[in-house]
Design a protein that fits this description.
The longest helix has 9 residues. It is built from five helices and five strands; from the N terminus they run E-H-H-E-E-E-E-H-H-H. The termini are close together. By secondary structure, it is an alpha+beta fold.
Length: 106
């Protein structure tokens, strides 16, 4: 899995990311019971579901990684049905990764 240090580097690596409409999946995801919050979003133009550590209330993020590639919003909705409840669970990111495992990241 490829990682970028922040969203600026993530967007710079593929210009489509900067211009793509985004489906926001919230910024309250936790990983392994950590107190760090992660923001997750899906990019329409690339099909990438990505997560980044939410660093502050200004919306900045670091430690960006692509979790999966999902070609359509309808498929995304089907794969992660129930995400609104899972995003506040102590290990919500694991739940999300499990749901998206059928759509691996490139």
């Amino acid at each position: 899995m490829t990682h970028w240090p922040d969203e600026a580097a993530f967007h710079a690596a593929d210009a489509r990311r900067r211009l793509s409409p985004e489906v926001d999946l919230g910024a309250t995801w936790r990983d392994g019971g950590s107190s760090d919050a992660y923001r997750v979003a899906w990019l329409r133009d690339t099909g990438e579901v990505y997560a980044c550590r939410a660093d502050s209330y200004d919306g900045s993020c670091s430690d960006v990684s692509v979790i999966a590639h999902v070609p359509t919003e309808d498929l995304l909705d089907a794969l992660i049905d129930g995400w609104r409840d899972a995003r506040t669970a102590p290990n919500g990111l694991a739940w999300l990764r499990d749901r998206l495992a059928v759509q691996p990241a490139a």
